[in-house]
Automatic annotation (TrEMBL):
UniProt xrefs under Gene3D superfamilies: Alanine racemase (3.20.20.10)
Pfam families registered for this protein in UniProt: Ala_racemase_N
SUPFAM superfamilies from the UniProt entry: PLP-binding barrel (SSF51419)
PANTHER family for the chain: D-SERINE DEHYDRATASE (PTHR28004:SF2), ZGC:162816-RELATED (PTHR28004)
Lineage top rank: taxon: Bacteria
All copies of domain Alanine racemase N-terminal, residue ranges: 42-219
Full protein name: Amino acid deaminase/aldolase
Signal peptide: none
Length: 411
């Protein structure tokens, strides 16, 4: 089926998750008869999340982070909404695959994949549709080694500049990605790329992970997080403006990309930025519940079977240990969400093949019943299942294959 998020655009916006009984009941109906583990995606929730992100972006176009979705039909449906533009892909083989259909793909991360670089350099159409990400000339050496500049189409590149905060007294705050941080460093890289044949600088990306990917409504540390994010944002606004000025003096930029789901309103307000990236807020892994500025609907979830009862207040489901990437802390576990009132055990957690769940709801569950979980991260669930079972207007609405279901495993 083709997901059409515009079809219902004149209907009142439904928020069925506000009534958990019927919401999770509809999700359960969508996977009735489907062996567990079974994943479902509620289209009203997806539509709400997609539209809410547009409101938060305040007119600045959003590029969709495909890693946070990994379902082509969902990417296509979101990209049909006015306000979304292009894809931020995560590997070059993925970008080449998506470029068969999509015309504006920025590879969000550097690549040294020789085979994929060779394909890109031998395909005029793909080369016109895909922009590589570069933060080191050695990445372009890898390209030149497989496809000399004279015999290939011009390759589009964007520069990834470090958006982390070098905080006085705290040191590095943010992720470890690009080595170029100051305007002079970024300009030197841009100049060196501009001197090379066979490549053209068309974009700049600066992703402020310490703001966009760090929840500020998660618990006792929130005031410190908010202070850090305020200070980092101030520092970034000036530095990003200086970097953009310096690079624009060397190469006309088609885009300056920034932000993520957690920073849409903040990054949109930065005059240097021409487009945003976001993905996680669409399917809404539960880590994205921990932000003050927005409250995503629980669009994607997966159901597991209750298979045994070790104690009156504990049931055990088969599976569950789909732990999200990142630091190995408790919040990276899937979250049991329905029925309400179940939690994993501290000593066991979500297990490789079994997950005991304790709580008042356990007494009401029988063997064969289902428990719904949300994954911590939005895209990783798609690596575990072949399809999402869709729910539209409260009723089952077909399925959408994941990348895995299409036989694709990119990372
Ligand atoms: C380069 C880049 N931009 C933006 C994002 C934000 O993506 P999301 O909205 O899915 O959190 C990420 C996430 O890691 C990223 O790596």
């Amino acid at each position: 089926m083709t997901i059409d998020l515009l079809a219902a655009s004149d209907a009142p916006l439904r928020t069925p998750w506000a009534d958990p009984d019927s919401y999770w009941g509809a999700m359960t109906d969508a996977v009735a008869g489907v062996p567990a583990p079974a994943a479902a995606l509620h289209l009203d929730a997806l539509r709400y999340n997609a539209l809410d992100m547009l409101v938060r972006a305040a007119g600045v176009p959003i590029r969709v982070a495909s890693k946070s979705v990994r379902v082509r039909e969902v990417l296509d449906a979101v990209l049909r909404l006015p306000g979304y533009c292009g894809i931020l892909a995560f590997t070059l083989p993925e970008a080449l695959w998506l470029a068969e259909i999509h015309g504006d793909i920025v590879l969000g991360y550097p690549t040294v994949d020789r085979a994929a670089l060779r394909v890109l350099a031998s395909d005029e159409r793909a080369a016109s549709r895909i922009t590589l990400m570069v933060d080191d000339l050695a990445q372009l050496d890898a390209l030149d080694a497989v496809a000399p500049p004279t015999g290939r189409p011009e390759i589009r590149v964007a520069i990834d500049a470090d958006a982390s905060w070098r905080a006085p007294g705290l040191g590095h705050v943010g992720v470890r990605r690009s080595p170029v941080h100051e305007a002079a460093e970024v300009a030197a890289l841009a100049r060196a790329i501009a001197r090379r044949p066979g490549v053209r600088v068309v974009g700049l990306m600066m992703y402020e992970a310490q703001i966009a990917g760090q929840g500020d409504a998660t618990g006792a540390g929130d005031p410190v997080i908010r202070w850090m994010q305020r200070r980092s944002a101030q520092e970034l606004r000036d530095r990003r403006a200086a970097i953009v000025d310096a690079v624009r003096a060397i190469a006309p930029l088609e885009f300056v990309n920034g932000g993520g789901t957690g920073s849409l309103e903040l990054t949109a307000a930065d005059q240097s930025v021409t487009e945003l990236t976001a993905g996680s807020g669409l399917l809404a892994g539960h880590l994205f519940d921990g932000y003050q500025a927005f409250d995503p609907a629980p669009a994607a979830a997966f159901a597991l079977d209750v298979v045994r009862r070790p104690a009156p207040d504990i049931v055990t489901v088969l599976g569950g240990g789909w732990i999200a990437s990142g630091p190995p802390v408790a919040s990276r576990q899937p979250q049991p969400v329905w029925p309400h009132g179940l939690r994993t055990l501290a000593r066991e957690g979500a297990g490789e093949v079994q997950t005991p769940l304790q709580g008042r709801a356990a007494a009401g569950l029988a063997l064969g019943d289902r428990v719904w979980f949300r994954h911590a991260k939005s895209g990783e669930l798609a690596e575990r299942v072949d399809a999402y079972h869709l729910v539209g207007a409260g009723a089952p609405a077909g399925t959408a294959p994941t990348y895995r279901g299409e036989g694709k495993a990119f990372l």
